[in-house]
Amino acid sequence: MTELVDLLDEDGQLTDRDEALKAVLAREKTRSTGIGRALAVPHGKSHGCRRLAIALGKPATPMDFEAVDGRPCEFIVLLTSPADKTGPHIQALASISRLWQHDDFRKAVAQAQTADDLYAAIERHQD
Length: 127
Description:
By secondary structure, the protein is α/β, with parallel strands linked by helices. It has five helices and five strands, in the order ααβββββααα. It has one domain (2-125): 3-Layer(aba) Sandwich (Mannitol-specific EII, Chain A), CATH 3.40.930.10. The chain has helices spanning 2-10, 17-30, 86-100, 103-111, 115-125, and strands at residues 34-36, 39-40, 43-46, 53-57, 75-82. Strands 1, 2, 3, 4 and 5 form a five-stranded mixed sheet that branches.
């Protein structure tokens, strides 16, 4: 998760990297964000960003997020958003969940070798 937060910070998406990371880690402690089918969606709301920011990652080795189905996570979608902006945060979580329900999208993500491949998969499968 730290790597994805760092990517957002390097891209200028965060106003306080440590605050954003702290919020994501605190949320993860309350309940795992490993939602199943090899997907984790760590997220947090904090004063460390001005607007919703999302980073995607495919770890070289699947990671244990204590997912509900017991599978390690092969795709991670990290979200951070301002503490006072619940709407976009919930909408993003719902969109990710809907996308992940499609077998063809999960296959495209699994086959993606580059960031461009991953972006193309998302573009092709958005509502």
